[in-house]
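Weekly structure sync, notes
Attendees: PL (lead), two postdocs, one rotation student
Agenda item 3: pending single-chain targets
PL asked that the sequence for the first pending target be pasted directly into the notes so everyone works from the same version. It is reproduced below exactly as submitted, 200 residues in total.
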Amino acid sequence: MSSPIPSTPPSDEMLRDHRGNLRARADIGLSYGQARLGLAFHEAAHAVVGLSVGTRVLTSEVIAWSPGPGMWTVTGNTAQEWRGAPGWEFATVAAAGEQAHVEYLWRYGLWTPGRAADCAADHDRELAIDTLAEHGLSLGRDSTPPGGRSWAAIQRLARRTVKDLWPAIRTVAFAVDQHTRLTGTDITDLLGPLLRGGAA
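Predicted structure, written out during the meeting:
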């Protein structure tokens, strides 16, 4: 069962992307519990796919608050550290959240074209583009740059990876939904033989 909705909003920093812009929000027509669990799947995918490629997961959490009576807002955050320079795996980890969110809608009978479109996480895509550019890799938004890869290709890889790791993602998602925030050690302890990787 989901935790009660706090009335205190998170810090402004938690609501902004790596460029300092407010993250986009959308009303995808779900109940609070359904929307919260969807965000838990999104963050769990970042964490589990990250662990699968050797990142050090620090925390994974859902962030919810009530801005007024009968109102709620939910988002999430997963903090990771990379061992060495981020490569193409970074983009796959970034794309995994959106793919798991859509997969959650599909598997739980909540999918509609509109809801799937509203799962788009442009801030994850832009983070991947900017981070990889700093390391000499070109990731194209709508095309494949010379010597690089397209976001569409990364999304396809992330979709396959999410399906392969779905039992682990599901396990972590329900735990994040229940406890609000997990550390990397919590996650690896929880998964046991389902996944081997790094932890905080």
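Discussion points:
- The longest strand covers residues 56-65.
- The beta strands are 56-65, 73-81, 139-140, 149-150, 181-183.
Action: rotation student to compare against the earlier draft before next sync.
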